[in-house]
Amino acid sequence: MANVGYIQNWRAGRLKFSHLILVACLFFAAFLLYLPSELGAALTIPPDSSEYSICLVNLFEHGKFGFTLNGEWYPSRYSPWFSLTCLTPAYLLSGGNPLCFHWAILAFSLVLLALIFEFGRRVGLGWAAPVPPLLLMFLPDFVFYSRVVMTEIPYTALLAVNTLLFARFAAARSHSPRFCFCAGLLVAWLGMVRMTGLPMILAFVVVLLLRRESWRSFLWRCLLIAAPVVAYVLINLIYNRVVFGSFFRSGYKYWASVPCDFPQLMFSLANIENVVYVMTHTAIGMITIADCVLTVMFFLLIAGGRFGGVQKNRWFLAAASYLILQTIILVALYGGYYWADTRFFLPVAICFLPFAFYAIRMFSEFALRRYAQLGLLLAILGVLMAFLVSNAQYWYVVKGRKFWLCSAINTASALPRESVIVQDGDPLILDYFALASDNVALVPFTRQFDYASHMVAPFPIGGVCDPPSSGEQRIIGELVDKGICKLPFKKTFFEDPEFISQLLRTGKRVFLQMGKYGDAFFRDPDIVKNILRRNGMSCKIYSRKTIKAIHPNVVRRFFDDFVLLGVFMGEREEITIINYELSLTDSSKDDSSNLAGHEDS
C-alpha cells in the first residue's frame, strides 16, 4: 500500500511539474511572439488583415463595416462577425488602433498552446504533454499567424475548444438543454470565424441520435443545438441582403466575381493537383499529412481492439472523430478550390499534433519496447528538422509588405492636400493612414495589388458574359466598358503615364513614392526614369525619411532567425521612404536622375 501511495504521489507531482512547464512556456511564448505596434505586424497581409482591422474601426466610428478608396465607400469582402467576436477586445484596449489588433490573435495563440497541452494530457502523453505546444512555438506557420490579424489561429483555438466539448458531450450519459445550447453557441462562433466550422454541428447531432431516449427529446435537443447556428446563418443572409442586395451575394462575389460567379472556375477537379503540390512541397503540408495518417491509422487500430481497445481510449476516439470530420470537410471544400494554400489545413495540422505523438509513442512501445522513448525523441527531432528545411521563400515577400505599411503610416502629413500620389502596396492601408484626411488621391503603379487588380460587381455576371479562361483573370474589360462592373482604380502609372502628365497640366501636384529596404529598391529607378522621360516629366525629391531598425534582444533575435521569420520582423535593415514631386519638362531637360536616390541639390 505504501508503494501504491508513493507511486500516486510521484505521478501527481510529475503532473504538477508538467503544468509548471506549460505556464513557463506560455510566458515565454508571449515574450517571443509579441510584436510592438510600431513594427506594424498586424496588417501585413492584404486584403485580409487590413479589412478585418480597419473595417472594424469604421464600424464603431461610422456605423458601417467597410472602407474608403479615393473618397469612395466600399463594403468589405468579409462579413463582420470575425472582427466583432474576436477583435473587439483589442479594439477597446488599444483605443481603436488597428496596429494593435494582433493582441487578440496573440491571446488566441496562447490559449491554443494551453489547449494543445490539455489534448496531450488527456490523450495520455504523460511527461511528453508539453512537447506539442513547445514544438508549435518553433513552427514558422504558427509563429507567423500568431502575429498578424488572420482567422487561422482563432479558428484553430475555437476548433480545439469544440473538440474538448465534443469529447465531453460524447461521454455524457445525458445532455441537459443548457449543455446542448452551449454546444450550439460554440459551433456558431466557430462558423463566424470561418464557414467551414458550421458543418461540425453534425457530430453533436449524431451523438444525440445514438443516445436518444425518445424522438421527442432528440428533436428538442437538436433544436437547441441548431438554434444558434440557424440564427447566425439568418443574420448573415440578412446582412448580405442589406449590404449587397441579395441574400446569397456576399462580399467575395462583390469583389471577386471572377471566379466566384463561375462555379467551374471556383471548384474544379483540375485544382486538386495544385493542392497536392502545395501540401507535398512544404513542411507544414507534410506535417499535416503525417498527422492525419498517423491519427487515422491509430484510430482504426483502437476501434479494431488494438492498443487498449475502445474502453481504454474512449477520449482519443471521440476527439479524433471530431477532428477527422473537420478534416473531411476541409478536404471536400478546399481540395478543388481555385486557391491552394497550406493555411486552410493548418487547424487540423495543429490539433492533430498531440494525437500523432501519442500514436508514435504507442507504436514505439510496441516495436521498440525498451527504446520507446528513443522513438518519441526521434519524432521530435524529425519535426524540428522539417521546420529547418521548409521552404522559406514565402517569408521574404514580407519585406515588401513591411515597407508598404511603414510608408502608409509615415506618409501622413508629408504631402499637401488635394494632391495625387503614385505608390505600390495596399491601397486600403494607405488611404486609411495617409490619404483620406487630406483628400490625397492614389494612383497605383500597376494592377498587381489588391483593389487595383479587381473589379467590383454589384450583380452576378455569370450569365452576362462568357467565362474567362482562368480564375486569375479578375477584370473583364467588356463588363467594365458597359458599366456593369467598375474599377476602383481606373488608371495606373504603367498602363497610362500620359494620364499623370495630364494631371500636371491641370495644375494638380503629383508625387511618386519609392523607397528602399536596406540597399534594395522596390521599384527599378531606371525603368521609372525612362517612362518619365518619354512622357515629358521630371522629378525632384520632396521628402525623405529613414526608419531606423529596432534591434531585438539576443533571445528574440535567435528565435526569429530559427523559425525563418527574422525578415518578417523588419528589424535587420533600415527602411527609406522617398517622395518625389513630378513636374512637366521639355525634352532637353531631365532631372529624373534623382530617382536613383541621390539627394536633391
Description:
It is a single chain. This protein is of the alpha/beta class and 601 residues long. It is built from 28 helices and eight strands. A hairpin with a 2-residue loop joins β1 (66-69) and β2 (72-75). The longest helix has 32 residues, at 2-33. Mean pLDDT is 86; it is low at 391-396.
Features:
601 residues; alpha/beta; six-stranded mixed sheet; two-stranded antiparallel sheet; 28 helices; 57% helix; globular
Question: In summary, what is this structure?
Answer:
The protein has 601 residues and is α/β, with parallel strands linked by helices.
Secondary-structure blueprint:
Elements: H1 2-33, H2 48-62, E1 66-69, E2 72-75, H3 81-94, H4 102-123, H5 131-136, H6 140-145, H7 152-171, H8 177-193, H9 201-210, H10 215-244, H11 251-255, H12 257-260, H13 263-266, H14 272-280, H15 283-303, H16 309-312, H17 314-334, H18 346-351, H19 353-367, H20 372-388, H21 393-396, H22 398-411, E3 420-423, H23 427-435, E4 441-444, H24 477-481, H25 497-505, E5 510-517, E6 520-521, H26 525-534, E7 537-547, H27 554-562, H28 566-569, E8 575-584
Parallel strand pairs: 3-4, 3-5
Antiparallel strand pairs: 1-2, 5-6, 5-8, 7-8
Helix pairs in contact: 1-4, 2-3, 3-4, 4-7, 4-19, 7-8, 7-17, 8-10, 9-10, 15-17, 15-19, 19-20, 22-23
